[in-house]
Amino acid sequence: MITIVKATSKGQITIPASWRKRFVTNRYLVEIKNSHLEIKPFDLDKLTEKQEYTVFDAIRDNDGKGIKASDLQKILKKTY
Fold first, then answer.
1. Whole-model pTM?
2. Which of 4, 19, 26, 80 sits between 20 and 30 A of 38, alpha carbons compared?
3. Rounded distance, CA 36 to CA 68, Å?
4. DSSP structural state of residue 78
């Protein structure tokens, strides 16, 4: 299924509710793939050391420094 979504003035888009209900998460990975964006459900429990991703905008969120997914995983587990 394809749908057209419009970004807000802050760059946010809304994933249709029918799509969100298909996944047991409210977190998603967004990746630039050549000329398009790829959005995938983010399952913290399935993340392995070999599959580390930067999951936030380092320039915006961390003074230009990246963070390993394993470090973020520890932080998120403390939050929940």
1. 0.50
2. 80
3. 24
4. H
